[in-house]
């Protein structure tokens, strides 16, 4: 089906549209559109309310290292998936095994992919089977309003598994009825030697919004497919997501959401190279959540929520021989929460309860279940001018590992208008996944004696925030005890996880973003948006003499130096040019630099964009033994009504 790639757009038809007649309307609509679309995200970033589950603060008041990717930024970047978008955030290590969100591991500041907690609108969507399924998110990129990245151990805020931080994906809440659709096609113009087909991909997304006085609804659908970029890397990915909100006369709000994704892909060298050349995997994920928010009285806000996640992972080690090492895993997670915010004369209190039940049925891992109960307690003190302090603790009971308490605190002081010094300390825990504990395979063997990982984290730094410039410079130190790494004695042995004694990591982070979205500068004929971020990590490993002789699978794969830079120029409200560069240097791998670009033409109701990724055609690896695609071109068309 991909023997010949054809994608034609009549430029004559486009140019025949009367741009002069549209221009005056577009000057107003461009500004209004950006203000509407970026409400709470790109409009005034320092006023964005970070969506924690109890005590919520604007971005400018936060005393932690938080990055925001808003919708206005995501629309100008040369990306087609959430995974690709996250790769432009310094401090996030995105280890892709294929393009367009096929399979991706995500970690923060040198941690492993199981140590980062992923949330959707505050709901945990991590997988107890394995962190490899964490990014199987049933939300098209076009339905996402912003992404909040919280760096540092965060059990006080989010509970277990936020060992190195958390990524919270916030979906759109529409303000007006409308529809949008986009399509793209792309190719490397290289051929598959075995078939003679040209490697190519295509995708389509559609989103509809319906808004009335007391309710709003969003439905998003997407389909992405391609025949890969090397042998056995073809993929098909379908997503559907719905979100609805209903308001009552007493200003209470009822919310419901649900999504489904089916992700099928060739998994050549994904997990067990070189023996898995003929591997294939299909991952299906369904999510559902029901929430309610009501104000009991002038000082008490109550927010109960129930969520459910179902995941099915079907892995064929050799797709031509389905009976050989064919693994089927079905996991189900039921989560119930009761969050409270109490505003008093001495400060704001946050209290929360959560109960989580995790079940697994697997041909390889067996039938497993465990229960997690948690209590959140937080306090915000802001009664001293220029000083803000948040303190709290998360108390956790797990049916396999018993009781633990994880305290945390952050503080910030405004030393000058727009300038803040801040510090935070925190702790966290990561439970072993069922794959860590019980996996049985030719190249990977689990260890049911594993203990949970725990962390202690401290950070201090300086922030500057105004209407369109955001700067953060900080230093952090993190200690992880009982670190879990997959190791082996020599290349002939299978990988098996073990608890290492300790990993101590210190890091330096810097980020600066200039984003004039929502300011008067949008009325100009020329606008500039720019970002620069750098992260340096220095991990130190404390091991026994026996452990020193082991070959590490994950501990030595983290980034040491990471630099990202983005530049967007907008001309006369019709033309956008974006350049984005990433420089990465891993502890045990060569340094490499990737450069991507996007050209875009915008009219009132449509836009045309052309992307070129990996412009210099660099050969590199992000995860395991999987070489990433070389230079790739995409042409896209978008309509908005």
UniProtKB/TrEMBL annotation:
<dbReference type="InterPro" id="IPR037066">
    <property type="entry name" value="Plug_dom_sf"/>
</dbReference>
<dbReference type="Pfam" id="PF00593">
    <property type="entry name" value="TonB_dep_Rec_b-barrel"/>
</dbReference>
<feature type="signal peptide">
    <location>
        <begin position="1"/>
        <end position="21"/>
    </location>
</feature>
<keyword id="KW-0813">Transport</keyword>
<keyword id="KW-0798">TonB box</keyword>
<keyword id="KW-0675">Receptor</keyword>
<dbReference type="InterPro" id="IPR000531">
    <property type="entry name" value="Beta-barrel_TonB"/>
</dbReference>
<keyword id="KW-0732">Signal</keyword>
<protein>
    <submittedName>
        <fullName>TonB-dependent receptor</fullName>
    </submittedName>
</protein>
<comment type="similarity">
    <text>Belongs to the TonB-dependent receptor family.</text>
</comment>
<keyword id="KW-1134">Transmembrane beta strand</keyword>
<dbReference type="InterPro" id="IPR039426">
    <property type="entry name" value="TonB-dep_rcpt-like"/>
</dbReference>
<dbReference type="InterPro" id="IPR012910">
    <property type="entry name" value="Plug_dom"/>
</dbReference>
<keyword id="KW-0472">Membrane</keyword>
<dbReference type="InterPro" id="IPR036942">
    <property type="entry name" value="Beta-barrel_TonB_sf"/>
</dbReference>
<keyword id="KW-0998">Cell outer membrane</keyword>
<dbReference type="Pfam" id="PF07715">
    <property type="entry name" value="Plug"/>
</dbReference>
<feature type="domain" description="TonB-dependent receptor plug">
    <location>
        <begin position="65"/>
        <end position="166"/>
    </location>
</feature>
<keyword id="KW-0812">Transmembrane</keyword>
<feature type="domain" description="TonB-dependent receptor-like beta-barrel">
    <location>
        <begin position="229"/>
        <end position="615"/>
    </location>
</feature>
<keyword id="KW-0406">Ion transport</keyword>
